[in-house]
Structures are given as structure tokens and as C-alpha cells.
Amino acid sequence: MIILKSNKAQFEYDIHALVKAFYPEEDVRVLTPESVIKDRTIREKPAQMELVFEEETVRFRMMRSTEETAGEEEKKERTVLDMASEWKQEYIWHVGPEGRLDYKNAFKRFFYTSLREETGITLPWGNLTGIRPTKIPMAMLEEGKSEEEILTFLETEHLVSRKKAALSLEIAGRERRILQPLHYENGYSLYIGIPFCPTTCLYCSFTSFPIGVWKSKVSDYLDALEKEIDFLAETYRHKILDTVYIGGGTPTSLSAEELDRLLTKLKSSFDFTSVQEFTVEAGRADSITEKKLEVLFRHGVDRISVNPQTMKQETLRIIGRRHTVEQVEEAFFMARRVGFEHINMDIILGLPGENAEDVRKTIEAIRALEPDSLTVHSLAVKRASRLAEWIEENGIATLCNTEETMRIAEEGAHGMGMVPYYLYRQKNMSGNFENVGYAKEGKYGIYNILIMEEKQSIVALGAGTVTKRVYSDGLIKRCDTVKDVAGYIERIEEMIERKRVLLCD
Q1: Average pLDDT over the chain, rounded to whole?
Q2: Which residues of the chain carry a pLDDT beneath 70?
């Protein structure tokens, strides 16, 4: 465990994210005078790092043990005894007259550089800690900045590598072109959350409930969801619906009849005339049947996902997917036979036990299927997932995501005629890399871009969803929905009232 103590509650998210990026195997705690820690023993433990914010300076101190020449037993003892008394290095940063944003960026450069000097590690995304790296080049493009100005800014201000800076700029430019036809001022996108899955995957932290256990509640859930649909259809009757995305969970955990009920309700409640993309995450092969696919196709769904995550059978077993590689292939070809012309596939790099050769084989297997788009995820370790427990038992070294595996996936996507069109990052990503969506021309996932760039209001219905209202001046307000299925059903009127307050002001 690494404990960093700070004398001020300032930049805690950024501090935690950067320390975690340099020390991914460690549990990182940032303690401030305002911190509320249930386990008070944490507060009493000595810190390995310390930040002291003063009026004109910031001091960063890092600790080490003494007696490097001592024997192993003695060295171990001295590490404990000396932990609170001796610091390895001290860096001092002088605060200039910059504005708030400049001040924060200057601090992050200082903090990142200090950690880089200490560890000898250079992070591909430099000191960027947010999840949306393309927002910076997007904003600068809209300001009329040149490509070289943008690249230089990312490299000098945020210490991003040239390769990642170029990637984010390329994607931002493509996103601007893709989003041009959308109705920002009088339009919106719709997300429908189906929080059920066949089983819960090892790495998953999303709102999901085993369909086998909750089958008897699906009808009640759809009843509540229909109430939200009715409210939104009336509230936004004069607005233009641009995209619809049904995710989860695994939407195809529902039966064909339940899917038909939901889609019939959507098509009868909203005007789909201007809808540019209608996506359903078919997701897991063990939830897909020909009858379900026919229901989706008949209702006008034009984009689906068949997501293997890996094409290695042993890994599928480890991560808790109860289907075979052959079932993935069968589901894909079944979707083609039904008529789907835009099929996305997802993979995750850094899954337990997988190496570069495994990634190469997965890419080769997917290339043989010829999907229209491919989303490449870097494994993110979430505290709420079972993966965190798995790592405690097996060690983080079993998660291998490197420049090589990222390159294999990138080259594989290019070999399928795809280009990168959206990008985002998450906390605790293996290798400190990113998630990238690749697609063939005209097969881009518009909703995926919107959720990242926050250019348009997205109204989200269902348990565990978050609605984002985007105002014309760039202000964003949110309201969430309870995650628990039973709570959502029981409190549906309250959930609707939350949206009424947000959407009707």
C-alpha cells in the first residue's frame, strides 16, 4: 500500500490517478485533513509520499529505507523502523501567477515529472488523468488551432507522447466530421439500460443481475421502463431523436418476446424519422438466438455487437463467460444471415494469463469473421469487480498489456480496413493505455462518440443509468437512477421526477 498525505484537499483525483499509474500493483490512498477513512489504522500508518501546499510552493517528498548494504533480514527491519523518518527525494515547485487551469496543469507536470524521475517510467499519456483525451484537440480544432499547435500543446503541456498525441488528434478530426449532421440544439440521444446478464464476468463493474435469478422480475422492470418512456416521449415530443442505444448488462438476456415488447414500445412512442443509428448490444454469444436477432432486425435495429472479448477458450472460462469460441462464430454468421450489415466486436487486452501471441490469434480469428467495427479495450481493474479479488490471489503480473499487444490490435484493425474513430480511458487501465474504437468507413458508432465528447444531451432510462443534459454554453448537468432493480421498480415515480427536474427547467 502507498499512502500519500497532503495538507490540502486539492487535486486528489489527479494525484491518485498518477500515483496508481506509476505503481499499478499498489493500493493507493490519498489522505487529506478532510478525508473520511473508516479504517482509522490507515490514517495512523506512516506515509510513503507527502505533498505540502504552501502559499508560493508545493513540496513533494518521497521516502526510502536506509542501509542498502544491509542483509535482507536487517534491511527489512530497518525499512519498517525508518519508514517515517527518512525521505528519498524532495522536489519543490514554485507557484507562478497562472490562472486556475494553468495552475492545475503546472502542478500535474511537476508531480508527473517527479514520479517519472523516481521510477524511470514514462507514461504514454503523460499527466493526462481524465477519461476523454480527445476533448482537448477537439476544442482546439474548433478554436481554429493548427495540427502542429495541438500536437505541441499536448506534448509540452501534458507530456503526452507524440504517437498518442497524433492518435487523439486524428480521432478528434474524424469525430468532428461524423458528428456534423447531428442536431445539437434541438436534438438528443436515448440510452436504454437492461441490467441483466447470463452471468457476471470477472472484470465487470457495471450494473448487472443474473437473468436466471431475476427472470420473474423482468416484466415488472419493463413496466417501470415503459413509464419512463412515456414521460420522455411527452417531455421531448418537440425534440429530434438522433441515436438510440440499448445496452446493459446484456440486452439479449431478454427473451425474444420481451425484446419485441420493448422495441414495439420504443417505436410507437418516439419519432424515428431522424434516427441515424439504432444500436443494441447483443453482446454475449450465449444470449443470442436467431429469433432474437430477427426481432431486432424487424424493428429497424441497424447496429449490433457480438462481443467475444477474447477468442481463447481458456480465458473465456477464467473470466466467467459460459460460451465457446465456436458459439461466437455461430452467433456472428447468424446475424449476417438475418441481414445485419453493421456488426461490432469487442476485445479486451490484458486479460488474465494472456500474452502477445494470444492477442495475435484473437485478432486473426476476428479478421476471418470480417466485422464492420472493432472496439479494443485495455483491461481496467475496478474495485467493484471480482477481478480485484482474483489479482490478490494470482498477482497483477498475470495481466499483460504492452506496447506490443496494443500494436498487434491496431495493425489488425488497419488490416481489416478500419480506422480509429473514438477513444477513451478509464481508471486503473493495464499499461496506462486506452480504449479505441476502429471502424470501416460509414460504420462508425455515433453514440460512442457522443457519450465521450458530451456534445449532445443523452437521456438514459433504466436502472443504474445516468442522464446528461448538455446546455448550449457547454454546461453539463446529470441525474442518476438507482442501480438496484427492485429499488428502480419500487421508486420509478421518484426516478421520473428526478428527470423532470433536470429536463424541464
Answers
A1: 88
A2: 36-39, 64-89, 94-101, 200-208, 382-399
- Note whether 269 and 159 are same-domain residues: no
CB 175 within 8 A of CB 138: yes
Residues 76-95: tens digit of each pLDDT: 332 222 333 344 567 777 65
CA angle 413, 419, 423 (to 5 degrees): 95
Shared domain check, 224 and 169: no
From CA 196, how far away is CA 214, in angstroms rounded? Answer: 8
pLDDT at 465: 96
pLDDT value for 322: 81
Residue 29: name the closest of 351, 380, 391, 383 by CA. Answer: 383
pTM above 0.85, yes or no: yes
Q: Print burial letters for 346-367: b (CB count within 10 Å at least 16), e (below 16).
A: bbbbbbbebebebbbebbebbe
3-state DSSP assignment of residue 91: strand
Query: Using N-to-C axis directions, what is the helix angle for 356-369 and 403-415, rounded to 10°?
Result: 10
Residues 174 and 293 both lie in one domain: no
266 in helix, strand or coil?
A: helix
Q: Which helix (H) or strand (E) holds 246?
A: strand 240-248
For residue 249, is the peptide bond before it cis, meaning its omega torsion is within 30 degrees of 0?
A: yes
Per-residue model confidence as pLDDT tens digits over 266-281: 999 999 999 999 999 9
Same domain, 50 and 185: no
> Would 306 be classed as within a structural domain?
yes
What is the identity of the amino acid at 1?
M
Task: For strands 476-480 and 458-461, give the pairing.
Answer: unpaired
Residue pLDDT, tens place only, 208-262? 677 778 889 999 999 999 999 999 999 999 999 999 999 988 999 999 999 999 9
| Helix residue ranges per DSSP H, 180-243 | 211-214, 218-235
C-alpha 83/C-alpha 45 separation (Å) is 10
| CATH code of the domain in which 397 resides | 3.80.30.20
Domain that holds residue 9: 2-103
Rounded Cα distance, 178 and 437, in Å: 14
Distance CA 398, CA 395 (A): 6
